[in-house]
Amino acid sequence: VECGGYDPDAFRKNREIEDRRNEDRFHFINWTKTAFENVDVIPAGNGIMHQINLEKMSPVVQVKNGVAFPDTCVGTDSHTPHVDSLGVISVGVGGLEAETVMLGRASMMRLPDIVGVELNGKRQAGITATDIVLALTEFLRKERVVGAFVEFFGEGARSLSIGDRATISNMTPEFGATAAMFAIDEQTIDYLKLTGRDDAQVKLVETYAKTAGLWADALKTAVYPRVLKFDLSSVTRNMAGPSNPHARFATADLAAKGLAKPYEEPSDGQMPDGSVIIAAITSCTNTSNPRNVVAAALLARNANRLGLKRKPWVKSSFAPGSKVAEIYLKEAGLLPEMEKLGFGIVAFACTTCNGMSGALDPKIQKEIIDRDLYATAVLSGNRNFDGRIHPYAKQAFLASPPLVVAYALAGSIRFDIENDVLGVADGKEIRLKDIWPADEEIDAVVAEYVKPQQFRDVYVPMFDTGTAQKAPSPLYDWRPMSTYIRRPPYWEGALAGERTLRGMRPLAILPDNITTDHLSPSNAILAVSAAGEYLAKMGLPEEDFNSYATHRGDHLTAQRATFANPKLFNEMVKNEDGSVRQGSFARVEPEGETMRMWEAIETYMNRKQPLIIIAGADYGQGSSRDWAAKGVRLAGVEAIVAEGFERIHRTNLIGMGVLPLQFKPDTNRHTLQLDGTETYDVVGERTPRCDLTLVIHRKNGETVEVPVTCRLDTAEEVLVYEAGGVLQRFAQDFLEGNAA
């Protein structure tokens, strides 16, 4: 989002910038359409894949060769469970796992735990689906549903629209589950009709579900191994943050939490403490829910009527995941109200939520740096990990779309959003309650202005992709100077060498809750970073550095993102007072020299030193980011020992030939008193979930043997790991098949 929503030409300008910067990527993607018989490409700028799947692609029930069967989906993004809201089993996997499927192998998983979540009660007035999902995310994280299939049921579930259910299912990875299912019922049928699905298909879904026992009524007697209960009436207006989506708090508790403080806007024109520098209505989490979008638009209208203004330092934006949102807001006369407050449409894409928030006004950025200002972001996305949203937003908070608009008016996280005065109109103090729209009006606008023909008008031409001329060669003609797409090195270097699992030195010792954003960030590339320095040498101007995420196809850029998050805490690197130093740093052993992480990786690569990573609980949570595994493997990491792994990242590690090992309960880096001066061996024959021995050689000559669990969970994962990874396993199968 280089151009904010206050620029009336923002969408066109942002698209032109994207097309120019990403020409190499788009060239490669469009080539795949001509090179493969079963690949279609929807051009960029049309929306977010999960929302398009919800509104158009998923039929809920498939028909093939005259046989009807339930739709399923495996997607290369952690938020693929978005369509679980339709009763479709849809799970997110890493790109490496998806490659195994595209290369002809099965996607394997252990039979998951099934957890029933009974939703009862009725939500209070003024409570959005965002408030509900943030409360559920906190609740389910505490209940440890990691890796489980969650099934929502009960009268509370039945009362939720598909838009509300989609908001909940979308955040499946945030509460750690694999899937978050809702049963097919009247709400499902109404939604399929609303989104313009064919009448015959809608009838098929209803008939099949009722006949096959998948209709909600037939599942009332289902018995779950574990049942949790959640009362919707207990949900208040919520936000989450900083740093984690499950760190929920009520907006009524801002002061008690220490965020809101006695607030007075500076009179000298300076930005206040806690300045909200980014306010973004973004992500399919919320923009696929018309009720949330309309609520934001009505709040904007109410604010405009009272003369309230967005604070000038707030970069505001509206990036819906579907073009349908633009149509119904226009027809309702509400899009101009959004635009007037600076929430014009900047893109139909995944933007701020994935760190694509774009550059700040140079004057604002300079003030933040010069004053070391505590600057923040408020967004309607699903993730707010440290350093993800913007390099100069020290913390980020998740909120519903109408709350995002309210914070653009307030301008600071120090503002008590429930109680402080937003402005004065006709001598009356205006607070949030005075502009918050009534549920009845929200529902009336949705009922009148969201129509089936809007979805048909958007999606029928979008999916008319035509026929592509066949490429003259099935081999891509690599562009040697590209910093976006480069011939990958997965058959050479560290990946071609033998993994000894002996004499490994720790690259990092890490705390709990390490995310894939710590391991390989996706946000803007700064000039002072290792990747920025490399891109400058390649001749790119700083304004075109783009984000780490866009350069994933070039390993020379993406490698330099490994542990490049400035919010990282590597416990091997200490300040003079003994506290852990924050930043992208490592300590090279045996010299004990501290340096930037990339230089440490280069040093070890030149020495051909095998590496290991030691970590705490919930290692690898967050995005299904391949480079979180690719980066460490190319650095020479052979094993990772943690107290626990998130599912998708664990499979990505295996796909790259990195061995995931799990400490036994009550054993961790602290109990073992690890400081990074050790070397490590892993001993034992690898079978699914077997015990192996981690041999620790301390600097003083002492040797400690620690039993650990091998997190190769299936026989298929053992085969992939032993081959060296996904591609190596495919090569073995291919060569063996040809030899036969």
UniProtKB/TrEMBL annotation:
Domain of life, source organism: Bacteria
Keywords: Iron, Iron-sulfur, Lyase, Metal-binding
Catalytic activity, as annotated: citrate = D-threo-isocitrate
Aconitase/3-isopropylmalate dehydratase large subunit alpha/beta/alpha domain sequence ranges: 11-411
Enzyme class: lyase
Record bears the keyword Protease: no
GO terms assigned for molecular function: aconitate hydratase activity; iron-sulfur cluster binding; metal ion binding
Pfam families (alphabetical): Aconitase, Aconitase_C
Domain Aconitase A/isopropylmalate dehydratase small subunit swivel per the UniProt entry, residue ranges: 533-664
Swiss-Prot/TrEMBL GO biological process terms: propionate metabolic process, methylcitrate cycle
Key word Iron present: yes
Enzyme nomenclature, EC number: 4.2.1.3
InterPro entries linked to this entry: 2Me_IsoCit_deHydtase_FeS-dep, Acnase/IPM_dHydase_lsu_aba_1/3, Acoase/IPM_deHydtase_lsu_aba, Aconitase/3IPM_dehydase_swvl, Aconitase/IRP2, Aconitase_4Fe-4S_dom, Aconitase_dom2, AconitaseA/IPMdHydase_ssu_swvl
Cofactor(s) it depends on: [4Fe-4S] cluster
Entry similarity comment: Belongs to the aconitase/IPM isomerase family.
NCBIfam families linked: 2met_isocit_dHY (TIGR02333), PRK09277.1 (NF006757), PRK12881.1 (NF009520)
PANTHER family associated with the record: ACONITASE/IRON-RESPONSIVE ELEMENT FAMILY MEMBER (PTHR11670)
Name of the protein in its database record: aconitate hydratase
Lineage: Bacteria, Pseudomonadati, Pseudomonadota, Betaproteobacteria, Neisseriales
